[in-house]
Each structure stands twice: as C-alpha cells, then as structure tokens.
Amino acid sequence: MSATIDTPPVEERERNLEEVETVTIRFAGDSGDGMQLTGTQFTNTSAVIGNDISTLPDFPAEIRAPAGSLPGVSGFQLNFSSRDIRTPGDQPNVLVAMNPAALKVNLSDLEDGGTIIVNTDEFNKENLKKAAYASNPLEDDTLKGYRIHRLPITTLNIRALQEAQVKLSRKEMDRCKNFFALGVLYWLYDRPMEGSLEWIKSKFAKLPEVARANEIALKTGYNFADTTEVFTTHYTVRKAVIAPGKYRKITGNEATAIGFVAASQLAGRPLFYGSYPITPASDILHELARHKNFGVKTFQAEDEIAAVCAAIGASFTGHIGLTGTSGPGVALKQEAIGLAVMTELPLVIINVQRGGPSTGLPTKTEQADLFQAVWGRNGECPAIVIAPATPADCFHMAIEAVRLAFKYMTPVFYLSDGYLANGAEPWRLPSIDELPKIEVKFADDPTNFLPYKRDEQTLSRPFALPGTPGLEHRVGGIEKQHETGNVNYDPENHHFMVLLRQAKVDRAAQDIPDVEIFGEKTGKVLVLGWGSTYGSITSAVEKLQEEGKSVSSAHLRHLNPFPSNLGEVLLGFERVIIPEMNLGQLATMIRAKYLVDAVAFSKVKGRPFQIREIVRKVEEYL
Amino acid sequence: MSTNGNGMNENKMDDALVDEGAGGGNVSGGGPSPESEPGSVVAGVPAPPPGKLTKADFTSDQEVRWCPGCGDYAILNNVQKVMPELGVPREKVVFVSGIGCSSRFPYYMNTYGFHSIHGRAPAVATGIKSSNPELSVWVITGDGDALSIGGNHFMHAIRRNLDINYILFNNRIYGLTKGQYSPTSEFGKKTKSTPMGVIDYPINPASLAIASEATFVARTIDIDVKHLGAVVNAAAHHKGVSFVEVYQNCNIFNDGAFDSFAERAVRAENVLYLEHGQPMIFGKNRDKAIRMNGTLPEVIQLGSETGLNETDALIHDAHERDPSVAFMLARMEHPNFPQPVGIFRDVQRETYEDLLAQQIETAIAQKGAGSLEKLINSGEMWTVE
Question: Which ipTM score applies to this complex?
C-alpha cells in the first residue's frame, strides 16, 4: 500500500463529483487519536459552508484507556445535509476507523453497503489482539458487502512530515495523523480547508512547528485523496434550505452557559454559579468561568452540597443562584433544594442527565432523572421542572428557568442530558430585542412588611435583600407561619403551607406557553416527548405524515407544571406514545394526571433514539 | 446545676450593664474597639456614628426556646451586646446557621438570618459573602454541625479565608437529638448511643481550624462573659475568616463538661489567658507559666524556690505566620496543662471575596464589560440568505 504515495500526480485528473443530500460520517479511533477534534473540525466547516448539521460525540468514560483497546475507542458522529435535519443520523454511511478496535466497536452501526476508510498501518498483530480479532478483518470476510478504502495513514503522515523536515519527535508527528485523515475526508466531501487551516494557526500560535506539521498533514491528506486512485468519486452536499439569518454552531452545554449569562443581563442581576466538576456538566463551569467580565461569579465548591448551598446563599442576596451537575450530584443536592423550596428563594438547578443509577454511564445520555426532579425530595416539596429540546434551545430555556425562578420565588430544575450537552447544531442567532425581559422586584418598604405575605397573582413571597433597612427577617428550613415567616409547628398552619407551596408552583402553568401540536390536532396517534428526543420524534412523525399517516407529535418543554392545554391535546388522539430514554417516567406522570392510557416506549442504551425506531413503534399502532 | 444559676444571673447582669452602657457600648474590655479607631471598618462597611444602636436593637421579637440554664443564653446575650459596638448597621448583618441547638441562634437576632440545613452553614455563608461582600456575615454552628456532618465545609470555608465570623458552640454532645456523643466527646464517654463508651477519638476544633489554614483562631468560655465579648469583638474586626470556639455547657445532656477549669472558683488557676505579646503566665497567684522544653511545652513554677520568673515564660505571638506554636497551644489540655483560651492566631491573608472581585475587575479591564450582543454574535458565524 505504501507505494501509493509515490504515484506521480496526474494533472487535471477528472473525477466524478456526485451530489448527495445527506451524509452521516462516524470518525472513530483511540481516545488519544483526536477523533473529537477531527469531527468538530469537519462539523464547523460543513456548518460554515451552509449545510445543516447535527452531531453526536461518543467518548469513553476513561480518559486514556490503554491504546488500541476496545474501551479506549472514541467516536464522533456527524450528520450533514442540504435538508433541514434534526438528528445526528440513524446509521453512519461512512466509518473512519483509525485502528482495529474502532472498527470492531462501530462496524455493527454502519449501514449495509456503507463506506469504510481504515488506517491499515494500525492493523498489526498486537492491535488485532487488543481488539479481540482472531484474524485480520481486512483479510477475511468480515467486511464483505462494504466499500472499503485502505489507507496507510500513519506511514503517509510520517513520511510527509519527514520530507518537509518537520522538527518534531516521531510521537509528535504521529499525533498529526488525524489531520491527515481530515484532509482525506475534506477532499472526499468537497469541503474547503481554509477554516481548519485558520484554526491550526491560532490554536498552535505559540508552537509554530506543531502548527506547520498539522497544516502539512491536512494538506497532504487532501492532495493524497485528490491525486491517487483510492477514490473514484467524490461527493458534494449543497447548502441547506433553512430559515434565513445569522448562524453559529453550538453545543447544548455552550448554549446553556451563554443562556444563563444572557438571563443575567436580561434580569439585570449578577450570576453566581456554584458547581463541582462532574461529567457531562463540567463544560458549563468552564464556559461560565470565561465570562467574568459579565460579572459572573463561578465557584468550584468542595462538593455538590456546598455548590448548591452557596448558590442558595447567593440567591438570598439577590444574585441569580445557579448550580449545575449531573444525576448523582442532584441526589446530593436534594436536601438543600428542599431548603430553597421552604425558604422560597429563586434557584436554578441544571441537571445534565447521564446514564444511571449510581455512577452508571458517565459519558452516555439518559432521561431517567425526571422523577428525581419532580418528586425526589423529602416532604411535599414541589419545584418547577423544564427541559430544553435541542442544543440551541438550551439558550432559550436557560432564560426561561431564571424568569420562572424569580417570578415564583422557587427552585427550577433545568433538565438537559449528555446528548444535548455535547451534540451540536446550527443556532440561528436571536436579536437582543426578541429575548424576553426578566422582571425582578425587590421589597423595600418596611410598612407592614411580612416576609411570607403572598402576591395575589403568583402566590410568591416578597424578596427582601439583606442590606435593606427595616426589612430584617429570618428564613430557614423549619415550617413557616403564613405571612410572618416565624417558626411554627401548628398542624393547621402546616397543612395550609404545604397546600400553598404546591399551589404556587401550580400557578406557574398560567405563565407558560401552550404545548404546540406538530400536525393535525386530532388523529390516531400522538407521539409525546420531552427533552432531547425532540429531533428523532419530529423527524419520525414528519416521515409518517409524508406517507399520509394519521400521526402528530407534541413536545413538552415544561414538565412541572404541565402546560394548561395538555389534557385537551391528549384527548384528540386514539393513542398516545411516549418515547423516553427511561422506563416510562413521563408516561407514568401523564397516566396519573390525565388518566390517559399512554404507551411508554423505553430505550435505555445510553444512546438517543433512531428515527426509524420511532417510526416502527408508531406503525404498530396505526 | 450551679452553672444554670450563673448563666441566668449573668444574663440579667449583662442586661443591666448594657442598659447602663447604652450609647457607649464599651463593655467588652478586651479587643480593639471601633469607637476608638475613627474610620474603622468591619466587613467593608463604614462605621455609622457611634452609640446609635443598642443591644435591644439586635434582639428579635421571637421567644428564646433553649433549655433554661443553657450556655447558649450567655453567648446570645454577649453577641447581642457586642453588635452595637461594631458599628455595623443592623440590615447589613446576616447570621447563618446549620442544625442543632445553637443553630436556632439567628431567629433571636434582629438582623437578617438564615437557618439552613445540617452542616451547611459555611457553604451558604460562602455564597452570601461572595455575592455581597458588604454584609457582615456570621456563622453559628455546633460541634456536631461543624465537625461531623459539616466537616468538609468547615475545612474548605476556613482555607478560603472569606471575611466571615465563624462561631462554634462546643458542648461535646448532641443536644437537639437528645444525648448522643459528638466528634468532640471524650474518648470512653458513655452516652445514649455509646452505653459501653465512645471508641471514636475526639477532634480538637481549634487545632483543626489552624490546620485548615485559618487566619484567626480563638477560644473562649460561655460563662466568662467579659472574655467572650472581647473575643467576639476581636473576631469581628479581623479581616478574613475568624474562627471562635466557645466552650458551652449543655446542662441537660453534658452538664459540667468544662467545670474542671471553667468554673469561676477554679478558672484563674486552671485557665491560661493568651494575650498577644504577653508571657504565658497563669494561676490564682500568677505563679505558673508555660515554657518550651525542647520541642514540647511544659508548665513551670515561678518564684524564689525555682529561681524562675516571668522572663522564662514563653511570649505569645498571635501574629506569627508559622502556625506551629499556635497549633501546639491549641492542643494543650487540662489537667496536664492549663486550658488555653484567647486568640491563638491572628494573621492577614487576602480574602476570597476580594480576590474574586479583583478577577472580575481584571476581566472587565481586559475584555471590556460584557456585551450580550457580542456574546451571542461570537465564534464562527455564517449567514443564510
């Protein structure tokens, strides 16, 4: 194979350029191979040239599992299209496998007849053994039926860098091979290299030799694909027809962080973020820590409990008290969240859900913390629960969380998940004046001031900040006397206060938008979802509707309380199917509240639903 | 139950003193008085004209519900008494507590207050002080609250050096849950949960605070009213975390825990009052002292018989940055040594909230004040026509 590089360039070689609508590529390699970076670069370039994109990074929980091993495989799936797409694609059309383990882990996902690009250099005896291959899959029948391109990427990369007399160690040069592979893919899908070249330049500004090496690797990969006979055809994907406007690519975690900074600006209150590092939420802490010039205070606490308690303390002084974590962290914070319910202070809790229970699957996605958010505390302890539907929606729902927390003086759960957090899509940038205003009112009049007196409309209590003369008062976790807020153990008062706190959260229903129906208002099947299943559900329902089927969908972004019109919406359909990455938590809530015989469609594999899985499920009920 | 009587009497006595002293408020004796230092600042708050507030201004309308005779009454009285001396307006004061008998404290102070959950008061206080450094923040906690369930927050809140006052009421027992042993209970102690004796080894709060990089560590005794007031006053004036351990008698579940040195009759003999710059002399006749013998402290008898005098005693240096001697002193215990009280350590280090504010200022200086427009419109963008 290594002879291929010596093939003299053929001038003006004619190649087939074929137009395709949608392509799904999965990049897979060792955790140390830079697959996340390669995937991200390809995504950025595709977004900038106008394709619609959706991504699904899939990385191991171990930072660097032994090189070449099965647990060490890291993957990044990208769906890019000239159509409006909502998911990272059911099945990859193309698999880039940098070693035998990557091939082994990902092959079963590849579509029948799909394309495989392998780095043949890594298919040696040792790596085959680590990947538990008894014989070399490149030489036996394993890959029968696939289109396979064999590239000695390691050798080609090293040779190109040696020829250019790059002054780096062999190990350092070897690290550039992901850019070689990226170059190959850029040629194969007719993408420009400029964006990535710029990125290399700025990323390695202080390491010019590393920058030069990566640049050479990228260009050599591109030219190699262009000038050799390995590929007979390359492909182009046109610009997508999507709503006009200015766009940027954004992941859910980025949108979440920016959304809370925006909420702080819109409310005119500083943001305090208390957090303890945890996968997959840590990137929110990293991102917020970069925005101190917005007055953002980030506090890396000693533990999850301190993180939420400090956020509550900050709320008490009138900051936007925010804490962020994943499921295990929420379990630790729940007592403190109960304190915020009792003291009726605004607080937002981000839960970037991951596979559970216990440590579970830290890097994989799941939606199994809905019950935990709605009911997971001691006593009757209601809180508002909302959930963004897409990575870009994370921005808008962050603002919504803060709006509701202040207006109803209550904790608000914001349920993201690993798929939203790390997945990316194009975000149409909003103008500032289309963002909602967040009204924050503080008490300042000592006349007849009572810390637990109620606003008639919202049932929330006045917000009197320390520092305000004449409004000195005490809050705490012991039951409060109605209006005075004094410690009170009277049975009638307790009964009353329990009902009052519930009624206050229920009142928020008057303040949230109706759930919208995608499709007809009545029909055979309604597919109801929440959170990150939005893309798969909507795409599946759209497909069925195109086939003339009587199917609609509705997606909940508010889960406690539910939108006021939900009961009526459910009654319009013969069947309600609820796909969830849990064992039917929303389905249970819907059944309990509306007495509707909803069907729970459960999947807990740490991966999002495929469109076709939902299509098949719905077809059973048509 | 002699302490009961003492406690109650002293409460009444304090009230009388405060009434007399209303306007002046200079009752505490000891520590630095803000009135004597014009422009003195507690927690960044400029002092208002002296003499404006009284103890009554800091007393809430809530009925105090501790057991009659509890040492908490004396501490509450003294804190209420010291508050007007600090010159901080009432609305700028926040008391934060956890769970336990002592943690009911904020309800009785007519300031802002936050009765939080078990062990977490330092974390709540961290959020309060970080987000509003102008507030004078007080953490009230007990030995179980601070050192058992809240042990982690104790260490981290202290090492961060927020400018908060952290008062630990140490009664060496769980009171609110009715008599189980605490992390400071003596080894072997028989309690409801340890009928055959405690087999946990107790922890020493002051030495733990020093080991946690505290910048101010003091100890006092509930019934030693004057000393308590002076220590609280000094703690309030220290910029940075001020940790104060108060030996507090629980007359129901652990009565007399500190009698062997704290009782009025034996106190002078058995307590060492640490004072910065002074030799460590104690005893009713001030005829005993502490000196170093190699790397360990020892008690020496002063006088003609031994030929030792004041100059042989160790001089207390609360401002020494090296915490070794303070640590050693914090671990001296009666009856082998006199029980030391007073300020073990009082050094300066930048506070967490100041450093946080500086980072924000630097970020604004470097990047300009945040613009929402720019925040949204950043990264790689493209336009769809």
Answer: 0.91
